[in-house]
């Protein structure tokens, strides 16, 4: 028996026992191993059982699948291998079994319906090497908290945006979260629906850790990863 542990930074998000001949990995709710990250494709890659070994195969993902810093198309997994998908890591344990307390996300609880956010791999590698504070937007999807990465210069919020916010008269892009020298600021776009931070209507506002952003029925929290 083998298992995959899904990590964001050093935090364990889920564990999955490899019990099928093929386990699909991605953002879609149809995947066997769900990675809730906009930098991960809906069907990103798969782990296949080949004889007594497990093989990782990229599924034509937008941002690529990496093992040991090398982009792969197909790779025979070894105990302790770290698979990198965007800002998430998946660790392969050749003899492990998933702890039910850290079981995988149930189907229907992912961001699978949203478009993939393209990740600048060079910038990501630099940020990971430098460490420091990384800020994210936390939102509720299917009853669980999902973290949306702020890896772009501009991250959009709306009905057809990087971060989903749906509701009556919400525009395709209702707000933008823009990187600044010290963090991020939010810019409300024109339209009938207002953008609020901590209950106050805003047009442009610098964000602080813990700020609560409301766009129609969507509640977003700006927080440290």
Helix fraction, binned, reads under 10%
- The number of helical elements comes to 1
Q: State the secondary-structure class.
A: mainly beta
Number of strands: 22
The whole-number mean of residue pLDDT values reads 83
What does the main sheet amount to? 6 strands, antiparallel
Low-confidence stretches: 105-113
Gyration radius from CA atoms, angstroms = 18 Å
Q: What is the beta-strand fraction?
A: over 45%
Q: Specify the overall morphology.
A: elongated
Give the strand order, joined by hyphens, for the main sheet.
2-1-11-10-7-8
N-to-C SSE string, H for helix and E for strand: EEEEEEEEEEEHEEEEEEEEEEE
Instruction: Give the CA-CA distance, first to last residue.
Output: 32 Å
Oligomeric state as shown: single chain
Describe it:
The structure is a single chain. The chain contains 1 helix and 22 strands. It is mainly β. Strands 2-1-11-10-7-8 form a 6-stranded antiparallel β-sheet, with no helix packed on it. A 6-stranded antiparallel β-sheet has the order 13-12-22-21-18-19, with no helix packed on it. It has a 5-stranded mixed β-sheet with strand order 4-3-5-6-9, with no helix packed on it. 36% of the residues are buried.
